[in-house]
Design goal:
37% of the residues lie in helices and 20% in strands. The chain is of the alpha/beta class and 430 residues long. Helix 7 crosses helix 8 and helix 8 packs across helix 16.
């Protein structure tokens, strides 16, 4: 087995970076159109460097803990000059990692996966090491433009893209659901069959499928330091009222269940979920397994296509006081986000790659769930940066719908509730 290390100059220190190939595989190729100043030649191999020793803590989603451990083992086996470090991989989800790191940057993980909407908070807290110079050019060239933009603040790359699959779509039982293009038809089929329709409407992530679908807006602008400077919100509008009505109508159906995890769904015929649950969905629906983009919904005689967020999973490296450890962490993070490992992670856990070459892998191209997500992403907006308090506020709105607080509300009452919601959202950027 032959391995290579690609060396990169980072902040004046010669650093080992990426384990590029294994066995019959070849080093990750540059994209067809190379960044300015980049060549197709691989950098020369470097002499051994003393990177020191110690411990490295990594946080990743629970379903890829064992996978990440095995990849770390492979990395250090191929790079004995960096093998003085003991790695601990712990299960911390992408949605929780940022909050945990910001609470205690020093005690947080050295390398951690996180959802792109957490980037601004992490940059503002000084919890990410910038990716600069030749390394920025290299990582940016390997990954699709949207994922690179998601990892960038103020022109500086702060994280390694892992996926371009952080969105949601419809899994369904095709023996029950006859028309996956219409929410009303899906719910009616579920009711007739005594089956459940699952969607997590008390989530600020999922409920945007309704609000963005009607044309309501909720985005934030940040400065180069990641501070929120402006809120663009139009939930207190006719479009917002239409979206809230759709949520209320859905909650009233006896088929409705609030949830977004196939593993926790009972007697389910349709669920709004993501690619991470594709294996569980196949097990649940068996030969009747099917996927589709999100359906349209109807409010007051008008049809709307469900929208929502499109997002990305990223991997960050915490700033280090030890230069040797920092280089090892950066090299390991770059390897864990490489073409080879993104393909392997797809095969192990179904995560959709952000790496351009990995996206062209024949297995990735044939994936039904990723195809449905790709179609749905045409109707979504890229998930930008959102204040942490927004997510709690959105949960509260959804909880009010689920508890029936708005079941008998007229348009004026719904508008008043959305005005309070909008004013609070705007206050997060002041």
């Amino acid at each position: 087995m032959k391995k290579r290390i690609v060396s990169i100059m980072m902040t004046g220190i010669l650093a080992a970076a990426l384990l590029a190939g294994c066995g019959g595989s070849k080093p990750a190729e540059q994209p067809a159109e190379q960044p300015a100043g980049e060549t197709a030649e691989q950098p020369a191999e470097t002499e051994a460097v003393d990177y020191g020793s110690g411990e490295i803590k990594i946080w990743v989603a629970e379903n890829v803990v064992d996978f990440t451990k095995s990849q770390c083992d492979a990395f250090f086996a191929a790079n004995p000059d960096m093998a003085g470090y003991t790695v601990t991989v712990e299960p911390v989800g992408e949605g929780d990692a940022a909050g945990n790191v910001i609470t205690d940057v020093e005690g947080g993980a050295d390398i951690y996966g996180f959802a792109q909407d957490q980037l601004a908070r992490l940059v503002s807290a000084g919890a990410l090491t910038p990716i600069t110079g030749d390394e920025q050019t290299l990582v940016s060239g390997w990954n699709d433009e949207a994922s690179v933009n998601a990892a960038t603040v103020g022109g500086t790359l702060y994280a390694y893209p892992l996926t371009s699959d952080n969105g949601y779509f419809l899994y369904y039982d095709k023996s029950v659901v006859t028309d996956p293009t219409s929410l009303d038809a899906i719910v009616a089929d579920c009711e007739a069959a005594g089956k459940g329709f699952y969607m997590e409407i008390n989530s600020g992530w999922y409920q945007t499928a309704f609000f963005f679908g009607t044309g309501a807006e909720l985005t934030y602008e940040t400065d180069d330091a990641g501070n929120f400077t402006k809120a663009n919100v139009s939930y207190a509008s006719e479009q917002g009222v239409a979206a809230l009505k759709a949520m209320i109508n859905l909650h009233k159906s006896p088929a409705f269940n609030n949830g977004s995890s196939v593993s926790n769904a009972a007697n389910c015929a349709a669920i709004v979920d993501g690619t991470w649950d594709s294996g569980a969905a196949k097990d649940l629906f068996g030969e009747n397994y099917a996927c589709a983009k999100l359906p349209s919904f109807t409010v007051d005689g008008k049809d709307y296509q469900m929208s929502g967020f499109g997002g990305f999973k990223l991997m960050g490296v915490k700033p280090q006081t030890d230069a040797g450890k920092l280089q090892v962490c950066k090299a390991l993070a770059q390897y864990l986000s490489s073409e080879e490992v993104q393909v392997a992670r797809y095969e192990a856990a179904g995560w959709g790659p952000s790496n351009r070459n990995a996206q062209q892998n024949e297995k990735v191209l044939a994936d039904e769930a990723l195809s449905a997500l790709g179609e749905q992403l045409q109707f979504t907006i890229p998930q930008g940066q959102y204040p942490g308090d927004y997510w709690a506020l959105a949960t509260s709105l959804g909880d009010s719908v689920i508890s029936g607080d708005y079941d008998n509300a007229d348009d004026a009452a719904l508008m008043a509730a959305l005005q309070d919601f909008q004013t609070t959202c705007e206050g997060y950027a002041q």
